[in-house]
Amino acid sequence: MKTAIEMYNYCVENGYGKGFNRNNSIKHFTVIQEALLPDEDVLCVFIGLHNYISTTKHDSNFAYAITNKRIIMGQKKVIGQTSQVILMDNVNDITFSSGLVFGKITIDTIKETFNVAIAKEFAKNVYSIVLTTFNDLKHKPNSSSAQNPLQQIKELKELLDMGAITQKEFELKKKKLLNL
Fold first, then answer.
1. For 131-135, which contacts have Cβ atoms below 8 Å and span 24 or more sequence positions?
2. Could you give the CA distance from residue 180 to residue 172 in angstroms, rounded to a whole number?
3. Strands 70-76 and 61-67
4. Cβ distance 74 to 61 under 8 Å?
5. What is the pLDDT of residues 140-180, one digit of tens each?
6. Residues 1-29, mean pLDDT to the nearest whole number
């Protein structure tokens, strides 16, 4: 996926949100398209209410892309645009909660924590793809952490804290990494 239209269609086809309407959503994804580096691959995208506090307190819809290098968030406004980038190494934790109308994904980073509200019908799909994508990125065999057992244990602990693996799985993998 390199174009805004491809990203939007991917969202709709996979149940990762639709935004307010097609035209606005494509404009938000255009912000992401323009921010992509030549060697950057978009792995998954979704749409949600940025900095969500309540149904009346949020920064409106943003488009989100997880690439092989970072998270890119974008919103096209009537005048101007807003974009934000978070490097993968700066993500501490990702959590999910569900309410009556929205599901909320909380992304905790070294610098800040932000909430993304997604219509309940799409929220679990989005959370699942976000976790899967992060897990795949953190455990690529050619990543620098593949040679560093302590970094791998830290990443396993993050997966344990997210609920992606069990305590037993964590202990087994930790022992294997430490050659115990």
1. 131/94, 131/162, 131/164, 133/43, 133/44, 133/66, 134/66, 134/88, 134/91, 134/94, 135/159, 135/164
2. 10
3. antiparallel
4. no
5. 754 444 457 777 788 888 878 877 778 887 888 888 777 76
6. 91
The whole-angstrom separation of Cα 90 and Cα 87 is: 5
Angstrom distance (rounded) from CA 47 to CA 120: 12
CA 154 – CA 160 distance, rounded (Å): 10
Rounded Cα distance between 100 and 167, Å, is: 31
* Residues 131 and 139: beta-carbon distance below 8 Å: no
Mean pLDDT of 3-32: 92
Identify whether the C-beta of residue 49 lies closer than 8 Å to the C-beta of residue 117.
yes
Residue whose tokens read 């305590």: 167
- What is the longest distance spanned by two Cα atoms in the chain? 59
